[in-house]
Structures are given as C-alpha cells and as structure tokens.
C-alpha cells in the first residue's frame, strides 16, 4: 500500500496555518509601543488560533501547547496578572486534525475565531476608549480597515505514520505558493480628501485633524492624544491606533531609556546624590513615568530629560508649564557635570537560527517535532531573561527568532550569551545526526531619534550580513555582524564568525581605543587601503603590493603618540608572515579597519564619571 493510501486509511490530516501580515506590519512603528504591540498583537492572534484548534480536537505540534495550558489564556498587556510575560506564539501553527474532523471546516472556523478575537477583544476596546479622538462618520471606514487587516492562509494534507516528513514538506511548499498570491480587494468606505496613516501611508486616518485635538478646542481628545503620544501632525488608521492605544502607556519603555540604561546604572553608583535629586525633581514636575523593570530600576521617568536638546520637546509633549531651560539647568545639569555625556545611540538586536529547515527535515514524527518545539519555547524564555539581564527591552522571542533593543555597552555580551545558550539548547535537543542549528546575530546601531522602522532595518541588515556574509570569501551563517549608522560619519559594518570569538575581538578593540589608541591612525590606514589596488585587480600573490601595504601600516603605527611605536598585534592586527599573498593581507587590514571603526562607537558609548576635559563625542546631546 502506498503512503498516500495509508494516509487516506487513517483519516488524519496535517494542518498548517499562517497568520499575517508580519514583517511589514511590525516595522510600521514610530514609538516603542507601536513596535512592541504590533508584535504582541500577532502573537495574540496566534494564541487565539491555537486556542480554537485545541478546543476542537486538534493536536498542536507547533507551538507545543496542550488543552488547558495557562499560556492559552489571552493577554492584552505586556505582563500577565502574575507579573510574568506571556509566551510568544509564532504566526505559523502546525496541528494534527483527527479523523472525525473535516480540516477545511476546522480551518474556516479557526479563521472566524481569530477574526472575531481581533475585532472584539483587541480592536473594539480601543474604539470605545478613543471616541474623543475619532473623526465623525468614521465607523464604516474603521470596520472595513479592521475586517480587512488579517491575512489567514491554511493548507492541509492526509498523512500516516511514516509519511510525516513528506506531508510536512508538501504543506510548506503549498503554503509558500499560496502566499505568493495576493488578494487586492477594493476599499468601499473611503472618506476622500483625508490624510493617510503616518505609519505606512496605506490606509486613511480615522483621527480628528490635528487642530481639532488641541486642548482649547477639545480637551478630551487632547488628553487622549497626550496619553498615547499622538503628535499634533500625526495620523493613524484603525490598525495603527490599535497598536498605539492597545496597552498601558507606562508599561512600555521609551527607546531613550533603553539606550541610556547603562549610563543610568553607572550614575546610580557614581553620582547617586545627583540622580536621586533629579528623580525627585521629575516627580515634582510631572515628567512622564515608566514602570517596566529592569530597565527603569534606577530612573522611572522618561530619560529624554538627560539630553539637553530634548528639554523643550519634553515640556511641550507632556504639556508641562514650567520653564524647561531653568528646570534642566537646575536639576539635570549637576548630574551631567558628574558623568560623561550620555551617548544617544541604541542597538537593535535581531537573531535567527541557522539551518532550522534542515533540522526540521530530520524530525520524522509529530512526537519528535513537538519535543523540538518545546525545546525552542524554553530558549525563547531564556532569551527574555538574557535581554533583560543586560538592561534591554525584548520585543519578540519565539522559537529561534529574537528581536530586542539594548544599550550599546551591553549589546555585545548579550549577543554572545544568546549564541551560547542557543548552542547549548540545540546540543541538548536530541536532534538526529547532522549539523546542529546555530544562531546568527545582527546588531544595528542607530540614533534614538531615528524612526523605529529605520532602526529595525539596521538590525535586519546586520542579521542578513551575519547569515549571508559579504562576498565569496565569507562562510555563511553562525556569525555576528554589526552595522553602525552615525548621524555624522556614515554607515559602517563588520562581521565575524562565532568560532573566531568576534565579541572578544571587538572588546579588545574597544579597550585599545579607550586606552588612547587614536582613531586618526585607523583612518590613515583606511586611506592607504584606498590608494592601493583592490585584490581582484591584481594577479598572483602580488608580493610587491603586499610589501607596500605592510610598510604603510607599520609606518602609521610607528608614530602613534610622539615617537611611541605600536606593533600591529598590540592593536589586534595580524599582518601574517612576509610571504602572505596580497589579497589575504588586504582583507585582513580591511577587516581590522572595519572592526576599529565599529569599536569606536561602542567605546564612545561607555559610561563613566567625568574626569578632566573630554572631547565632544559625535552625536552627544
């Protein structure tokens, strides 16, 4: 009997469901709450799908949840009532449908259940809460935008013992083909001559015009706009408003608080009296509070007050009536005199498992796949703990995916620990023989005032470099990549495979710069590289060019400070032997330059007490 015939005999089906939109929807963000709640919202829709599948007799393989599991309970806030975060549920669910259930009927019913949860449990409370902000006659447009938001795709196939791998692969192929087909339904309730959403420009706004939200004209609308940080010129569609108003504002950590968390932690030790005075002044003035630990353990207020260039905006945004300049000079400036300048750059960390598809292909039964799903859930829980241990804010951790924001001084150690824990988790997962999955990590560094979408793009760009490399000489996957985009100085990037201990290499470069190795020497050597031909333009070993490059590097390092001479290896540069081929030497020096320029940003971000005169650093407020 063929595998297809055996599958038909059992009557069981394998059902794969995908929910969306995902990446584009999450990236449509201007504030931390937009980004976090977009990710959380999709997780809650996945939780609703899991709840309905289990309630109708299906057996979940991924996520590995059972009927009655506490994680099936909806959670519309960042934390549950017990203070613990909810399990992130991925946008893809795999389940076994029993023989007495029609998979098509179950898929349709699941879609209706998820759509109903989205409409009634997530969108409706925002509609009720934000009536004062909504434009007149917007109900039909609201309903259409909410109803057409959800993307739901489901595929199923019969399977039997021994045919699981083939059935799952067939589902993945069919789902990919279905998702390549796009539905473009026309809008039926356009209001005409109104702005589009500020988040993506796709749907019409449902908000009152900015002038109609002002305090004198509409106090209720002004209060809501203030509470949800909706700027006067900002416009949101129905979905965007659900993202912005879907949780308690004080539970979301502003990005600037994440960026300056290490600086604040150091200030709590080295300038305790000044920081305590500032906390009292913030409380008395009514500066916006933030309750989410651990990032706000020492300073539970909007950390924008630590950047003098933001004082005016803070007072205007939070409708404070005092003199912002006098308040800042009196309460913030004493702390800034004790500490190094706050460095207003933040790290967006994006991590993703390598060879996960190959690992899944080696799982030959639903039971083995389910055990692996449980292992991935444990890693996701550890990922949250690791990110928060390093004063970061986790946006998403589901299976092998991690998205988080971190202060620069802790980002490298966080990435390193995530990689180690993922490796240990995979080693203990009991996978069949083969290359175990590894973790590629990208760190994108951008200014805290950049849009969330731009910061997320930097993190994803870094993750792509980590996974794919940047040329034929790079081995793909199992790597760390860093992309730094400075407001003055342009974009820089560097990549190292985990086997080469990249975080240690970067830390050594940071230490060398901290101890006085001048950045101008790095630029001198970078200029020398540009004067020499690229490796693909020379033939053979090009020993003459190799000698020229070696000499240029040594000449630059011979006069670091006065007559002080530095050996290349003292600053982490291995020039190799005298017979090293020119292409290999060129790549080594180029990688060193990239590493040092990236390390310069991390060195600038190191917090500490102010000692003597310090150079003004790029980007400091």
Description of the structure:
The protein has about 625 residues and is an alpha+beta fold. The protein folds into 4 domains: about 180 residues, CRISPR-Cas system, Cmr2 subunit, D1 domain, cysteine cluster (Alpha-Beta Plaits, 2-Layer Sandwich), CATH 3.30.70.2220; about 80 residues; about 160 residues, Reverse transcriptase/Diguanylate cyclase domain (Alpha-Beta Plaits), CATH 3.30.70; about 90 residues, no CATH class. Helix content is about 45%, strand content about 10%. The chain is built from 22 helices and 10 strands. It has a 6-stranded mixed sheet. A 4-stranded antiparallel sheet has the order 2-3-1-4, with helices on both faces. α10 packs across α11 and α16 runs antiparallel to α17. The N terminus and C terminus are likely disordered.
List strands and helices in order, with pairings:
Layout: H1 3-10, E1 13-20, H2 23-27, H3 32-55, E2 59-62, E3 92-97, H4 103-129, H5 139-147, E4 151-158, H6 164-179, H7 219-227, H8 238-245, H9 255-259, H10 261-270, H11 272-285, H12 311-317, H13 324-331, H14 333-338, E5 345-354, H15 356-361, H16 366-389, E6 393-398, E7 401-407, H17 408-427, E8 438-447, H18 452-468, E9 479-486, E10 490-497, H19 502-514, H20 519-531, H21 543-557, H22 582-604
Parallel strand pairs: 8-9
Antiparallel strand pairs: 1-3, 1-4, 2-3, 5-7, 5-8, 6-7, 9-10
Helix pairs in contact: 3-4, 3-8, 4-8, 10-11, 16-17, 19-22, 20-21, 20-22, 21-22
